[in-house]
Amino acid sequence: MNSQKILAIIPAFNEEHCIAKVVQELRSLNFTIDVLVVDDGSSDRTGHVARSAGAQVLTLPFNLGIGGAVQAGYQYAFRYGYDIAVQIDGDGQHDTAFLQRLITPIVKGDSDCVIGSRFLSPSAGYRSSIVRRIGIHFFAGLISLLTRVRVTDPTSGFRACNKKVIKVFAQDYPLDYPEPEAIVEVQRAGARVSEVAVDMRERFAGRSSIRYVKTLYYMVKVTFAILLRMLPAQKRG
Predict the structure, then answer these.
(1) Residue 32, helix vs strand vs coil
(2) Residue 54's closest CA among 32, 75, 73?
(3) What would the DSSP string read from start to end of 57-121?
(4) Are 36 and 113 in contact (CB under 8 A)?
(5) Which of 42, 84, 205, 234 to pair with 192, CA 20 to 30 A apart?
(6) Between 74 and 121, where is the model more confident?
(7) Per-residue pLDDT at 207
(8) How much is the pLDDT for 212?
């Protein structure tokens, strides 16, 4: 593990009440990991708080959304030659105690992209609302059908990638609600995708931006984006 150059990418928009604790948890791990907070045009003190907690901060001039912020992190990882990049939400839902479990299959060469799933046994943590779970299971079935790879938690943003996938995502990363679509992109690039069981927590503060009616919009939009991405490149062009 210590021979690997590892970067934690934390996209954050107005997370001043959560970000310090997330950074501190990462810096307290028993292996070396660099921490990059991508401040996605926040109007609060997210960047200042993250920097004070010991993170490197990449400040975007305006809000790009989750996809743009994550891609900026992958471009940073690619530019500076990181072996492994780990995505972690800035709201505290991702328990860093499971980070080593996420990275191990990549270090062993068994997988190119590893997703932390809250629906694999023996996970028993926070699993979000019933409405959100309906959407998660819908996308799990859709992606598993289209890619022939079983996925149980396609909306999980808790994931680790090796150099091959870092390069793919630095060049092309979905913009809105990108997690399910990004799995399809990895599969199209010929990368190996796997899952490991993790526990998740409720946000440290605030609330999710995807709620109730917006969940239906999310499902329709991402479904069309996934189907479009599955088309041969010449047809999409």
Answers:
(1) coil
(2) 32
(3) EEEESS---HHHHHHHHHHHHHHTT-SEEEE--TTS-B-GGGHHHHHHHHHTTS-SEEEEESSST
(4) no
(5) 234
(6) 74
(7) 55
(8) 42
Residue 82 has pLDDT above 60, yes or no: yes
For residue 1, give every residue at least 6 positions away whose Cβ sits within 8 Å of its Cβ, in sequence order, or none.
31, 100, 103, 107
The residue behind tokens 């690997």 is 4
pLDDT > 90? residue 188: no
**What letter represents residue 16's amino acid?**
E
Closest CA to 15 of 218, 210, 207: 207
pLDDT (average), residues 111-138: 79
Q: Which two tokens stand for residue 7?
A: 């970067």
Cβ-in-10-Å burial (0-12, 13-18, 19+) of 31 comes to exposed
Of residues 194 and 236, more confidently modeled: 194
Torsion of CA 168, 123, 36, 176, to 10 degrees: 50
Q: Looking at this protein, which amino acid is placed at residue 232?
A: P
pLDDT digits (tens, 9 = 90+) for 170-182: 999 998 778 999 9
130 burial (CB, 10 Å; 0-12 / 13-18 / 19+) is exposed
Read off the DSSP letter of residue 2: T
Q: Is 199 exposed, middle or buried (0-12, 13-18, 19+ CB in 10 A)?
A: middle
Cβ atoms of 166 and 85 within 8 Å: the answer is yes
Q: Which CATH architecture has domain 6-236?
A: Alpha-Beta Complex (3.90)
The residue count of the chain comes to 237
Amino acid 105 reads P
Dihedrals phi, psi of 184, to nearest 5 degrees = -65, -40
